[in-house]
Amino acid sequence: MTADATPPSADDAPVILGNEPGSFAWGVLAKRHPALVEQVRDAFPYGPAQHAALDALLEETTHGVIEPLAAGAHDRERWAAWGQGHFGRSWFDVPFLWAESYFYRRLLGALGYFEPGPWQGIDPFGPFKAAELRSATVDDELAALDELAGRHADVQGPALLGASLWGNRADLGFRLDSGGAQPSTAARTDSRLVADESAALWSLLPAGGAAASVHVVADNAGRELIPDLVLIDHLLHAGRAVEVVLHVKPYPYYVSDSTMSDVVDSMRRLARAQVQAARYAAEIGRRLWGAMADGRLVVRAHEFFCAPFPYDVMPDGLREEFAGATVTIVKGDLNYRRLVGDRLWEPTTPFGERVAHFPGPVAALRTLKSDVITGLDRDTVAALEASGQAWRTSGTHALIQMGGGP
Ligand SMILES: O=P(O)(O)OC[C@H]1O[C@](O)(CO)[C@@H](O)[C@@H]1O
């Protein structure tokens, strides 16, 4: 990672680029993306045009320069504006956040996802998501919910918040890199919260308070989205919230990010959990189904969630929506990068300062999977650095941080 040549202001930390060999960002562009292209290629019986487009994308992203979208692409103008100054440059020399986002747009384009035809709307990551949803691990996690049935809201709330937080560890992109290994329970129990401001979150959502409007910006499908939905059910059922708005991606993104069709699959998985004798999960699934029907749970898929920018430049419509929320819960590593800015901040940079742009209270729930970090105290940073672990990027550590505007 190196500093962008023209940082917006002298006070800002360097924008993360991918041009330092051995850095995390470089590894994603040079190794993770090519591996992903091959995994997607093998997962479907694609035809010659798609294989050729994948070959070209692989060559361009690793050795070539950034090309604009093809003439006739429905969003060519939008990306032409979003990518000004980046086209014609190496993928490694532009902001990492931009390069990753455009890579997913281009990958889907190579496969015919956006064009009218037989492959339109086919999620290239669908087989990976489906396998995860079918897994025995999910059976076990759903069955374990029975232990929480009938417990007090003050017991259920923290347990379900923790499940939603650590669910972020189970992202498919992360697993592609770790040789397909599932994050183990042992790894989870060894893991540490580097910041925990959950008390401030709960103070906004008292059980029985029932006036709150909560927005949840989702991250991964499957083993993350299910605990997110269970947490949402808890907020509604315990009277902590009167309505919840769940924000998902408008198209498949970052391997396993949730789309509307993933929400449907996860809600079905919950509602049908009865067959695995997971009675409470099935009850939760039915309640969520009902909440969708009567409008207490609403799903939105704004195009900005697949835009290559931090949240401080979100469009006005979205800004107004978040301004009306009692609190917005923002899930995952990518959303954290977009929230605080994808820069090499000093880890002690106050989180509140970085998210002052957000139009209302915001809670970040994230396992650490990239270099960006803010809001840590000096002792915590010293201990983490002394540990010798890859604490910023390995997903073994997590945080709950609160901040936001008025
Ligand atoms: O699913 P999450 O938690 O947003 O994690 C996504 C992270 O994975 C990567 O795409 C690659 O590891 C990171 O660059 C990114 O921040």
TrEMBL record:
Its cofactor is Mn(2+). Transmembrane segments: none annotated. SUPFAM superfamilies: AF1104-like. It catalyses: beta-D-fructose 6-phosphate = dihydroxyacetone + D-glyceraldehyde 3-phosphate; beta-D-fructose 1-phosphate + H2O = D-fructose + phosphate. The keyword Metal-binding applies. The keyword Nuclease does not apply. Keywords: Hydrolase, Manganese, Metal-binding. InterPro entries: ARMT-1-like_metal-bd_sf, ARMT1, ARMT1-like_metal-bd. Belongs to the damage-control phosphatase family. Sugar phosphate phosphatase III subfamily. This is Damage-control phosphatase ARMT1 family protein. It comes from Streptomyces xantholiticus. The lineage of its organism: Bacteria, Bacillati, Actinomycetota, Actinomycetes, Kitasatosporales.
